[in-house]
Each structure stands twice: as structure tokens, then as C-alpha cells.
Input
Amino acid sequence: MPSNKHRNRGSKINDDTMIPPNKQNTPSQEYEDDEIEEMQDTDFKKFMIRTFRSFQKQILELQKSLMDKIENLSRENEILRKSQNETQKLVEQESVIVKRNQNEMKSSIDQMTNTLESLKNRMGEAEERISDLEDRTQENIQSNQRKEEEIRNLKNIVGNLQDTIKKTNIRVLGVPEGMEREKGLEGLFSEILAENFPGLEKDRDILVQEAHRTPNKHDQKRSSPQHVVIKLTTVKHKEKILKCAREKRQITLRGSPIRLTADFSSETLQARREWRDIAQVLREKNCQPRILYPAKLSFVNEGEIKTFHSKQKLKDFVATRPALQKILKDVLHSETQKHGHQYERRERK
Output
């Protein structure tokens, strides 16, 4: 009976304590089941006390281990909390900085927008001013062109008036100054006619209306005697004398060479000079060129006599005649270049 009692107690103790099988050095493991059943009450009590103490020791150790872990977890939690607080502070600081930067950027963008708008307005105003200046410039150019055209027309009118006034005049070049002291200029002209055109000297209808000397307007630096201008009564007599002079070619006064020409305005003389190079080329090609009164070019082309008042008219005509274009190509090109250089010089001035 006692053995069964001890056996029941041992079973109950085993069931209540549930000692883990992996625990080492526990009192219950020092005895076999049969040995425990055979224990006396005193031994059993001792056994239970040792077992309890062993469990108590294990519990204390487990408690200590748990407390250590809890303490470690608390420290880690505190560290995490501090880290979280620091991170939150940093985030708040960064948020403040980002917000300030955003405000600054917004302010800068607003300033840039205002600046761009101001620049657009200024550009618009500048474009309007430029457009106005261009319009004014164009108006000035057109006005200058009109003025230049008016000046040219006035010069042409003045030149035509001068040519009309001088239409009966003959200009004598190369007569030494002082020779007119004996006979006067009219007497010298009669002597020229008698020396070179005996038949004309006897023509009583040729009358000198006026005679005087005039300075050389076209070459002030040239040390040559002043020209003698003879004003006749009719254009017919002037043309007759000049025709005889062209036929004789060599005109003299007391053995010294002189020249007889028509008396033109400076503009007409310049216009006649501008035909010289072209007339020379046409003369070499046997086109029979002539410079007509007051400044027209006449020559024979394909059996017809052509007359031109200006070089532009001549260029337009030459463009339709390949053979004539080949003849005058070089001289017309050089004339265009020369006028271009003159225009550039006027622009620089």
C-alpha cells in the first residue's frame, strides 16, 4: 500500500511539474521511477525540496535572462525612440528648409516672370521703335531719292537752259592770252577763219555778236590760257564752222595749233565725255559713231542709224543684240564698275 501511495504521488508530481526533458542536473533525473516509488516519506520530501530549489534556481536564472533581455530591449527601444526623435527633427528641419527654398524659388520664379514680362514689353516697344525707324528710314530714302531726282531734273533744266543760251557759241581753246590786244577777240576769230577756212571768211552773213574769255571750269589746276567764247548770230553758222573744223582736223592760229568746239554746259560736257570710250570701240568696229547735240550717241547697227540719249537705253538695246553685246561687253562692264565706285565714294562722304 505504501508503495502505491508513493507511486501515485510520484505520478502526480511528474504531471504537475512537467519538467523539461532537456534540463540537465535536475534531482528527478538522478533517480529512476522504481527508485522514487521505493523512497520513504523523508527521502521523498528531501527529493521534493531539491527539485523545488532546482526549479527555483532555473526560474531565477530564466527571470534574470528575461530581465536582461527586457533591459536590452528597453535600451534598444530608447535608442530607437531617440533616433526617431532626431530623425523627426531632421525631417522637420529639412521640411522647413525645403519650404523656405520653395518660397525662395517661387519668389525667384515670380521675379523672373516679371522680368521676362518686362523684357517682352521692352522688346515690343523696341520692335515698334525699330519699325518706326525703318518706316522713317524708308521715307527718308524715298524722300532723298525724290530730292536727288528733283536735283537731277533741275540740273538737266539748268543745263538745257545753258545749252540753249550757248547754242550759238563756239569755244576756242589754246589761244595765248594777250594776242587779242591788237585786233581784239573778234579780230582774232576773223583771222582764224581766214587762216583755216578762206571760203567762210568771205561769208558776210557770219557775224560775231559777242566775244570774251572764260576760265577753264573743268580743270582749274591746269596752267592753260583762258578759253575764248565766240557768240554768233545763228546756230546755222556755228554748225557750218564746226563742220569745216572737223573736216580739216588741224586748226591753227599763226601756225600754232588750236581747237574749235561747241560751247556746252558742264553737265553736257560730262555727258559727252562719258560716250567717248563707247564711241571709240564702235569706231574700231566701223559702226560710224557720232556724239550729237547736246549729248546723244548715234551709230550704225545692221544698216540702221540708232540714237541713244542715255546709257541705260543703250544697255537695254544691246541686251537684244548678241553681236553688239559682244562688242560692247567689256566697255559697258567697266562703266558699271566705275559708277559703282563713284556711288561708294559718295556714300562714304
Q: What stands out?
A: Confidence is low (pLDDT under 50) at residues 1-24. The two ends are 151 Å apart (CA to CA). The domain at 167-263 is CATH 3.30.70.1820 (Alpha-Beta Plaits). The first strand starts at residue 169 and ends at 173.
